[in-house]
Amino acid sequence: MTDLTSLTLADARDRLRRREFSAAELADAHLAAMEKARALNAYVLETPDRASAMAQAADARLKAGDARPLEGLALGVKDTFATKDVRTTAGSRILDDFLPSYESTVSANLWRDGAVMLGKLNNDEFAMGSSNETSFFGPTISPWRRKGANTPLVPGGSSGGSAAGVAAGLCLGAIGTDTGGSIRQPAAFTGIVGIKPTYGRCSRWGIVAFASSLDQAGPLARTVRDAAILLTSMAGHDAKDTTSVDRPVPDYEAAIGKSIKGMKIGIPKEYRVEGMATEIEKLWERAAQWLKAAGAEIVPVSLPHTKYALPAYYIVAPAEASSNLARYDGVRYGLRVPGRDVADMYENTRAAGFGKEVRRRIMIGTYVLSAGYYDAYYLRAQKVRTLIKRDFEEVFAAGVDAILAPATPSAAFGIAEKGGGDPVEMYLNDVFTVPVNLAGLPGISVPGGLSADGLPLGLQLIGRPFGEETLFSLAHVMEQAAGHFSPQRWW
Amino acid sequence: MSVDADTVRRIAQLARIAVADDEVEHLREELNAILAFVEQLSEVNVDGVEPMTSVIPMQMKKRADVVSDGGIADEVLKNAPAVEDHFFAVPKVVE
């Protein structure tokens, strides 16, 4: 029998409908793969009983010819999504054994469409990180290794478990969240596809909030088509999230294979940063040629405020986080560390419950919002944000359909290699992804090639608001030219 | 702009996170590294620029002021560390 875990999600969907195998077999194959892959630490919680029950229900529907869009497809869920009666931790100690009595809207949409849940995937604590090293459950190890070496590498973050899970064949696809690059960067590091849709495309209800004006859910998958299929199910208006938009969800899969002739692709000069690896620059140029060969027009563009995106993000995101994480106080759920009185209890609980990175960001956020500093920092950063968004608006107004850029400044690095002394070193990983969150635009990461070391390198396409279809059409062209990349099993 | 030890303690207190005395200095250095990094925003000319208040242009949605949920006290209390009589129980509040 084919190794069921090496199928694309689209292929598995089609073969399930043709009854070539059952949803139960598909789930079992993944559960077995997960068992063998525990060294990766991709899953923080496996849910085999639930997966089997859901697969059984899916098989009944498949047999009756009543298949829903994702019927029987085995997926993983990042642990920042609240899953009803299934422990949800956001990668933190402070949520302890929290059992949500509700389901996030985005994951509910997956189950509504017949998908099967394999488990909860690891992530940086409260989605704060670019390497999955800040998780209370320990780092996820990338399924990729450098040629001729066995140094453990990071899968990227914060959706590191999701990316590793998809790349290693431990799920057909996963749902993640992206606040500053947390879907796109790990997708690039692990050679898979990840898209952060336009702000408001997916509901944030039931997602553990980090920065409410930046957070957005999105799919990670091994192909552009798979990501499109997942996004169609995930997206949609939700009355419980007033920032979700009331806009119909197109069939994103229909964008796959659409002609890109005549599309204008912008190459932003400010994304050519000092110290950027030559091989990334060359890959970027190659990708522009792929799009040109398919009929697109390549034009140079300028996004003058690009370099201020990262500092603006590291004021706005921590500020919003300091507000969102104020709820973790040991009173209503999660960890409680005793104290002399309630104030002492708050301080002890939060000190014990939050990791170092989270504490740093809450404190920066608290500081920049505090009296006397609000104008100089937060207000100014929000003004810079307007300028960053305006840069993109002007480029799109000039007729550009999408912007092509690298996804990350480097390939994946080793566990414990970065961020030891200087917190800012880790932040620099997000230089190409953060502007997209600040502007609320959609961005997709597509594997473009391998580094000299044999590690995946990703490219990013940034689109107009609600221009996901254009991104999928373009990304598919790039995928056809670049090919697919799979890690060699070391576990 | 950089912070001193007293400011670090004040921020910790505002954030309700206990910081041990031997952690203050290290934390001070880390926070200052971040503040030094974001300092470059002061280069930008923001005259006449409005702060971004909505990511995507939208009107705040409203709903009818009716009770549409509730009566689920047990669910709400389900994960609580300490409960008494449908109340969350906490150590005493000191004025």
Radius of gyration of chain A: 21 Å
By DSSP, the count of extended strands of chain B is: 2
pLDDT < 50 stretches of chain B: none
Biggest interchain interface, per-side counts: A-B, 70 and 52 residues
Strand order of the largest sheet of chain A: 1-3-2-4-6-5-10-11-9-7-8
Structural class of chain A: alpha/beta
Decide which structural class fits the backbone of chain B.
mainly alpha
Q: How are the secondary structure elements laid out?
A:
The complex is a heterodimer of chains A (491) and B (95).
Chain A: H1 9-17, H2 23-36, E1 43-46, H3 48-63, E2 74-78, H4 105-112, E3 116-121, H5 160-167, E4 173-178, H6 184-190, E5 193-196, E6 216-221, H7 224-234, E7 264-268, H8 278-293, E8 297-301, H9 309-324, H10 342-353, H11 356-369, H12 375-397, E9 402-406, H13 423-427, H14 434-439, E10 443-450, E11 456-463, H15 468-482
Parallel strand pairs in A: 2-3, 2-4, 7-8, 7-9
Antiparallel strand pairs in A: 1-3, 4-6, 5-6, 5-10, 9-11, 10-11
Chain B: H1 5-14, H2 21-38, H3 73-77, E1 83-84, E2 87-88
Antiparallel strand pairs in B: 1-2
Description:
The complex is a heterodimer of chains A (491) and B (95). In chain A, a hairpin with a 5-residue loop joins strand 10 and strand 11. The longest helix of chain A is centred in the C-terminal third of the chain and has 23 residues, at 375-397. Chain A has 15 helices and eleven strands. Chain A starts with 8 loop residues before the first helix and ends in a 9-residue tail after the last helix. Chain A has a domain at 4-260 and 412-449 and 463-482: Alpha-Beta Complex (Amidase signature (AS) enzymes), CATH 3.90.1300. Chain A is 37% helix and 13% strand. Chain A has an eleven-stranded mixed sheet with strand order 1-3-2-4-6-5-10-11-9-7-8, with helices on both faces. Chain A has helices spanning 9-17, 23-36, 48-63, 105-112, 160-167, 184-190, 224-234, 278-293, 309-324, 342-353, 356-369, 375-397, 423-427, 434-439, 468-482; strands at residues 43-46, 74-78, 116-121, 173-178, 193-196, 216-221, 264-268, 297-301, 402-406, 443-450, 456-463. Chain A has 491 residues and is α/β, with parallel strands linked by helices. By secondary structure, chain B is mainly alpha-helical. Chain B has a domain at 5-43. Chain B has a two-stranded antiparallel sheet with strand order 1-2. At the A-B interface, helix 9, helix 10, helix 11, helix 12 and helix 13 of A face helix 1 and helix 2 of B.
